[in-house]
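Hi Y.,

Following your request, here is the sequence exactly as I used it, all 64 residues.
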Amino acid sequence: MDVRLPGMDGHDFIWKACLLKQNMAFAICTGSPEYIVPPNLLDLPCMSDKLFKKPLDDFAELEK
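Below is the corresponding structure, written out as tokens. Let me know if you'd prefer a different format.
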């Protein structure tokens, strides 16, 4: 999920999608070294607690 979307940003999209489809799962992959997942997203059951940084070296971690 790209968190820097025009209009509705990725954070809002994840929040709304999790409320609508509770069986969805989201992981965030970012190229921004200072990015931190907001606590209100980490509290959602559909969110991965792992933040992936670009470039992604270990795709096995993403599969988990």
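The CA atoms of residues 52 and 61 lie 9 Å apart.

Thanks again,
Q.
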